[in-house]
Amino acid sequence: MSQSAGSNTRNSIIALLFFASAWCCLFFVCPFHLIYKEQLTLFLCDKAYLTSLLAKPAFAAVIAGDFLTQFFLYRFAAATITVLVSVAVWDAVRRLWRRDGLHNAALCALVPAAACIALSCHTEYPVSMTVGAAIAAWMAYGCSIIGNKALRTVVSVAAALIIYPVAGAHSLLFVVLTALHERKRIFASVGILIYGTAIILILGDAYNLLWQDALSYPLIRGYSYKHSLLCLIVELAAAGAFALGFIRRNAVPAACTAVLLAAGIIYAQFNAKEEYDLKVSTLAYYGKWNEVESMGKENRFKSQTAAYYYNLAMARQGRLPNELLNVYQPLFYGLFLPVTMTETYSKVLAGADALIECGDYGQAQHSAMLGMTFMPNQRSSRAVRRLAEIAVYNGDTLAAGRYLGMLGKTLMHRSWAKQTKALVEDGTAVPLNSCRDTVYFVNDYRTSLKNILDSGNAPRATLDYLLCYDLLIKNLVLFMQDYDRYYLPENRNIIPPRIYQEALEMMEAGPEYNVTREVKDDNQLFLSGEEYKFPKSYWYYFKFAQPGNEN
Amino acid sequence: MKTRLSIILVCLWVLVSCNPEGEIVQSASAPRIFPDYTGITVPVNIAPLNFKLEGASAIVLDIKGEGSYRFRSSGKTVCFPIRRWKAMLEAEKGNTLGLCIRAKVNGQWIAYPAFNWEISPEKIDSYISYRLIEPAYEVWNVLSINERNVETFDERILAANSLTGRSCINCHTSNRAPIPTTFLHARSAGGATLYQRDGKIRKVNTATDSTAGAAVYGEISQDGRWGIFTTADIRNGLHSAALERFEVFDGSSDLILVDFENNTVSDSPLVKGPEFQETFPCWSADNRTVYFCRAEALKQPEQTKQMHYDIYSMSFDPQTGKLGGELVKVFDAAARGKSVSHLKCSPDGRKLLFCASDYGTFPIWHTETDLWMLDLRTGEVDPMEETNGAFADSYHCWSTNGRWICFASKRDDRVYGRPYFAFVREDGTTTKAFVLPQRNPDFYLTTFKSFNIPELYDTPEPYDARDMRKFYFGTETEQMTYSK
Fold first, then answer.
1. What value of ipTM does the predicted structure carry?
2. Range(s) of the domain holding residue B19
3. Sign of CA dihedral A346, A347, A349, A351
4. CA distance B360 to B309
5. Domain end: B65, B94, B120, which one?
6. Does B465 touch chain A (CB under 8 A)?
7. B303–A contact, CB cutoff 8 A
8. Residue A492, Cβ neighbours under 10 Å: how many?
9. Residue A451 to residue B244, Cβ atoms within 8 A
10. How confident is the model over A369-383, as pLDDT tens digits?
11. Which residues, numbered 184 to 243 in chain B, qualify as contacts with chain A under a Cβ-Cβ cut-off of 8 Å?
12. Does A374 sit within 8 Å of B466, measured CB to CB?
C-alpha cells in the first residue's frame, strides 16, 4: 500500500512540528526536570565501571543513556537529546509500519514516540529507558526486513532472547512490534508475544529482579516515580496506534492521539512545584544566588526548598536575621533539611548546602552521603562533588582524592576535579574544621552549631543559623542562652537585628540588650490587639505559625 | 619483491616490539602498583593478583622462582591469564618469587626494583562472603550479601534486599564446620534470623519478652546447635572533629544463648543487667568457653569516649546448655587505654583475634582500630604491626585451617572498606596484608560500595538470592521462647 508523495510530505511536516513543539515544551516548561537527571547519575568513562554494567540488564541502553545524560547539564542539550532519542524511536517504528503497509505510518509512529517524550518529563525516568525503546524498535525493524519467513522467525526468536540484556524493559516494544508485524501468521505472532514476554520475566528473575522491576528496569522502582509500570504505556501506545492506523486511515486521529497522549502523560508526570524546587536547587548549585534570592522571595509554591535556599542566600550576605520573617518560613525546615528516603530529590541533594555554609562539615558529610545513598542507583554527580568539597574542608585528602579521582573520569566534572585536586596538592586548600571532638545525635543541629562556635573558627553564618533556629523552633529560653553566650559578648554596643530585639523584648531583656524604643512600643501595640499591623514580626510568628503540610 | 619486503618489515616490527630492552632507566623507588601487592605472602589457590601501574603504557613483568615467567601488558594493567597463573602458583608452591617490573612511562622504559611473593602451600578457604553497602552511616538503601570464589573471580548474590522488601540484611556468618551451619539476619517487619543447617533454611525470631531484643553479633557452635549472640539497643551519633565520622554505641547490651534445636533463648545473670554491657561473644575452639567484651555501662553519647571494653570469658556446658561458672578477665584492654571488640578464636583454640580501638564498641568507624592477636596460653598480645594499615582494620575472621585471616580495612581511603587477607605464620605472627584481587583492579576505585563483614568458608552456600527470597516471604517464622 503506497502513499502519495503529497501525504508523505504533509505527514513529515506534522511530525517535524510535533517534535519541535515537544522540544519547546521540554526546553521552556520542564527544563529542570531534565537537568536534574544529570545530578542523579554519575557516568564514568572507565573500563571497570562499564564492565560492571555488563552484569546488569539493559547494559547497552544504560551505557548509552547515562553517557548522554552527562550532557543534560546544559538545558539546550537536555531537550535536544530527549527529542532526538525519541525521534530514533519514531523513525524505526515509522519504517517498520511503512513496510507493514500502515496508512499514515509516520503519524501513527508519533504515538509511541510521544509516550517516550512525555515519560521523560519525570526527573527519575532515565534516558536509558528511551534509548532502550529505540534499540528495541530498530531491532524490530531489522528483523522485519528479512524476507524469508522461517529465517525471520528464527532471528526474531534469537533477538527476543538477547534484547533484554541489551535494552531492558522496553524490549517489550520489540515483542509488540514484531508480533504486530507477524499478525498475518497468527501462531507466529501470538507465539512471539508470549515467548518474548516470558523471556523478559525469566531473565529478570535470573538478574535477581522482581517481576515488577524486570518490567521497568532500568527505571528503578520504589522512589518518587510511583507507578513504574506506567513506562509500558509506550508498548500500549504502539499497539493502539497500529490498530488506529488500520481502522481510521486519515491522518487526523493519529496526530490527535499523539498530541493528546503526550499532553496527558505530561500532565500526569509533570509537577510545577517540583520544577520550581529543582530550579532553585540547581541555581544554587551553580552559584546563581541573585536568581535564588528572587525566587525565594516570591516563593509562589510555599516551597521548603525555596525558603531553604533563600535563607542560605541571605546568610551568605549576613542578612539572615534581617530577612528571616519577610518571606515564607516552613518552621525550621527553611534552615535545615533532614535527609530521608521519602524526601524529594531537591531536598535530598540540598541538605548538605546550609550545613557547609555553617561550617558543620560532620553533618554535611552525613547529609551528602545519605543523599547519594538515596539515589535510584546510589550514584550522584552532585553528591560526589559535595563529598569531595567536604573532604577538602575537613583536610581529609585521602577521601577527597577518592571522590576527585572518580569525578576525573567524567566528562563534565573532570576540569573541576582537576582544579580542586591541584588546590589540595599544592596546599592552597586549608582544612577549615577545627572542632574539638564530641559525639552528638544525628540532626541535633544546636549541639553541632555550638561545637563549631566553641571552636572559635566559625563562619559568620553559624551564629545566625543557631539563633534563627532557636527562634523558629520557638524556644526563647534556648535563644537567650545562645544569645548571651555567643552573640552578646561580641555585639554589646550595636543594635541587634529587629527579629532578635522582638524576641528579647518578649523575654523582657534588660537595657544591656539594646532593644530600641520603637520595638518596645510596637510590642505594646501588638499585645493590645493590633497584631495585624505586624504580620512579619517574630511576635506574630510565635503566636500564629503552626507546623503544617508543605503541600 | 613487495611481498618479501612486507615480510621483512613485519619481522622487524615483531622483533622490535618483542624487545623492550632499548634504553631502560633504573628507578630507585619501588613501583607504585595498585593494589599494593609488593612483599606479600599469598595462598597457592588465590585468584590472579591483577594490578595496575598508573601512567604506564606497556608493562613487562618477569617473575623468577623455580621457573621463569613473563607476562606482558599493552596498557597500565597487568591481567594474568588464569590458567597460566594457576600453573605458576602450583609449580612454585612453597617458593619465593621475585617480580621485576619494567614499564613504559611517557615513552621511556623504566625498570623498578624487584619485590617478592611468598607462595604459601597453605590454602585459604575457597569462598568469602561480604555485604556490599554504601558507608552511609545509620541507614541503607540497596544492599546485598555476595559470595565470591577467591580462586577465581566468580561472584554470586546470596541475599539482596531488593528481593526482601528493602530490609537490612547483615552478619552472614559460618561456623566453618565440614558441613557448615550459617546464619544471617534480616531486619524489618517480618524479619528474622535466617539459619541454614544441612542445606535447610529456617526463619527464626530470637526476640523474646524476657530478653532485650533479637540476636545481633554472634557465632554458631561447631555442631550447629548453639548460638551465642549479643542482644543490644544500638544507637548512633556523629562526631564533630574533622576526621571522625560516626559513632555507634549500645544503650544497653547483654548476651543470649540460642538453642536452634529446641527453639529456646536463654541467658545468664553473669551477662545480663544494666550495670555492665556485654557484646561480641565468640566460642572457643572446643565450644566450652565463651569469650566476650564487657564494659561498665556509662551514659552515652556523653561518656562514649570513656567506654572501654575488656575481654572476659565464662564457661559453657553443651550437655546442659548452661552458661555459667565465673567471669574471668582474659585481657585488660582498659589498662592499655584501649577498648576491644569483635572477638574471633582461632580454629586451634590458641589465639584470639580482636579489634583494638581507643574507646567504644563499633570498630568500623574508628580509624585508629587495629587488629590485635592474643595468645590464650601466655596472655601475650601481638599488635600485628606488619598486617595493620593506617585506618580501621576490623571485622576479621579465620580460615578453616587457621593459617589465614581475612578482614575489612579502610586503609586505602579511610571511607570504603575492602577485604584484605594476611597469612598466619607458624609462630603466630602475621604477614603484610593484601586486598582481594579483582578482574579489573580499577573496580575498587569506581565503586561506592564498602565491603562489610567478610567471612571465609570452604563450602559454598546451598542457596542463592532467589532461594532466599522464597524463604523470606514463603516461610513461617519460628518464634523462639525464653528458657530460664
1. 0.90
2. 4-120
3. positive
4. 7
5. B120
6. yes
7. no
8. 10
9. no
10. 999 999 999 999 999
11. 236-243
12. no
